[in-house]
């Protein structure tokens, strides 16, 4: 379903949101199959100057998952961002069937534009199995999602950051002031936390829910690197370099999830960020790690390489 065929909704800043926009994202992840192991995807008509990293990661995971039996769920992915993607042309996803074991399945995916790789992903899938269980507890004393402004309300007062001016398939509610905010208190060693969920209802397809979370995981993660420093926000160059995720338990991406982001280290023009996803009832369902390029402009010079 497209935005033209569903009841249109707008956020407080006038940008489209709700079920129609979510349906457009779901359609974006419904890749065209060219051959058994070859798929093609596109970018949305309203896009960033480069393909959003979460989009290409989610589409690559769809390509991998389309070659795996449905009963085998994603348990991990490891990926590298090789080149900036061009949102004006399609992306071809070439999938390699590395191994089909008794319990685990391994796939590799290469995302290609103009004959060159822009992204590579390895993903592992597993049959459901019993074993030891424990997890880190969810942070306590958090405000409920309804008590936190959504991104549209922030953007309406000029505080939407890089996501301002874009359609919103996700309902994002920042608990802590992000690094771009005019109300950011300054350098902090505390994690950056937010509530998020798909802004509508999703089909009962576990692979789709995992891919939606993969998409969402790239939205705010690198911001936790900058939040630990007192640096100018203008001229700052940031780009994802690699990305990893581990999925611990089933979840629905159209129900509230807490995303807690923290940067344990930065050096060499790079920053490392970790993220944890909890369900509203406190279950840790996914963990992510990302290293990104973080270049601060020197006095009198910009951040271009």
From TrEMBL:
Database matches in InterPro entries: Acyl-CoA_hotdog (IPR042171), Acyl_CoA_thio (IPR003703), HotDog_dom_sf (IPR029069), TesB_ACOT8-like_N (IPR049449), TesB_C (IPR025652)
Superkingdom, taxonomy of origin: Bacteria
The keyword Hydrolase is assigned to this record: yes
Domain called Acyl-CoA thioesterase 2 C-terminal: residue spans: 179-293
Domain Acyl-CoA thioesterase-like N-terminal HotDog, residue spans: 50-126
CDD domains named in the record: Thioesterase_II_repeat1 (cd03444), Thioesterase_II_repeat2 (cd03445)
Key words of the record: Hydrolase
Pfam families: 4HBT_3, Acyl_CoA_thio
Stated family: Belongs to the C/M/P thioester hydrolase family.
Name of protein: Acyl-CoA thioesterase II
Native species: Pseudonocardia tropica
């Amino acid at each position: 379903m497209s935005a033209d065929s569903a009841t249109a909704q707008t956020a407080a800043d006038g940008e489209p949101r709700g079920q129609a926009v979510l349906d457009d994202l779901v359609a974006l992840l419904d890749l065209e199959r060219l051959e058994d192991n070859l798929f093609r995807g596109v970018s949305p008509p309203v896009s960033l100057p480069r393909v959003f990293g979460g989009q290409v990661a989610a589409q690559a995971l769809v390509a991998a998952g389309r070659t795996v039996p449905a009963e085998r769920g994603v348990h991990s992915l490891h990926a590298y961002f090789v080149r900036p993607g061009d949102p004006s042309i399609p992306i071809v996803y070439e999938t390699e069937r590395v191994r089909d074991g008794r319990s685990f399945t391994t796939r590799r995916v290469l995302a290609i534009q103009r004959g060159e790789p822009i992204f590579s992903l390895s993903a592992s899938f597993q049959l459901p199995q019993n074993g030891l269980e424990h997890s880190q507890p969810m942070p306590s004393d958090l405000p409920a999602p309804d008590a936190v402004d959504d991104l549209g309300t922030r953007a309406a007062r000029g505080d939407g950051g890089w996501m301002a001016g874009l359609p919103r398939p996700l309902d994002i509610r920042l608990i802590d002031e992000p690094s771009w905010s005019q109300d950011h208190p300054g350098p902090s060693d505390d994690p950056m936390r937010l509530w998020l969920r798909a802004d509508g209802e999703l089909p009962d397809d576990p692979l789709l829910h995992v891919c939606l979370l993969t998409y969402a995981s790239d939205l705010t993660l690198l911001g936790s690197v900058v939040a630990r420093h007192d640096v100018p926000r203008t001229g700052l160059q940031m780009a994802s370099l690699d990305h990893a995720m581990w999925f611990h338990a089933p979840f629905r991406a159209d129900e509230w999830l807490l995303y807690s982001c923290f940067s344990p280290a930065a050096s060499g023009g790079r920053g490392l960020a970790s993220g944890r996803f909890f369900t509203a009832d406190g279950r840790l369902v996914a963990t992510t790690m990302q290293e990104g390029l973080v270049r601060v402009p020197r006095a009198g010079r910009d951040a271009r390489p």
